[in-house]
Amino acid sequence: MKGSLSSxxxxxxxxxxxxxxxxVLLLSSCASMKTGVxxxxxxxxxxxxxxxxxxxxxxxxxxxxxxxxxxxxxxxIKEAIRDTFEEGGFRWVEDRADADFLVGYLIxxxxxxxxxxxxxxxxxxxxxxxxxxxxxxxxxxxxxxxxESTLSVDVFAAATQQPIWHGWATRTITDADRSAPRAPVRExxxxxxxxxxx
Length: 198
Prior knowledge:
Structural class: alpha/beta
């Protein structure tokens, strides 16, 4: 009896340890950044040297954008985009007539729900006072809501104003990101523009 009881408890604890590892992996994946690009394969990117904004206000803000975004966020994004392009050897110009390509960006966000299930182990009551109750387990679920934000950068050919390259990054926004957005913005822009030009 005792052997089978201790064996059950060991299996239950092992299951809980497995769930704990899964929870850590889940939370890590929620905080990770996903990036991607696509571009016009027919366009020759080799001759591009100068750039500027697509318009006086290059941001596209959809209706579902996070209302908690700070007005400073757009300044940080513009700074990061310009700095990253210049670090890549491209030259900023003020006049669109002097630019080889034009740049715009978009911010979007949505709520995402992450769910996980795990076992809860408890000891039931025994009919006999001298015997321990039976160990039992039940399945429980945990749901967490995350605010997921997407930042994308679009490049247009200055001569035609046609889109030629699109890059994006998606990650979960934390309270720390909201209070100090400059560092995560620079990280996102750096990863987005890393494969530019293709």
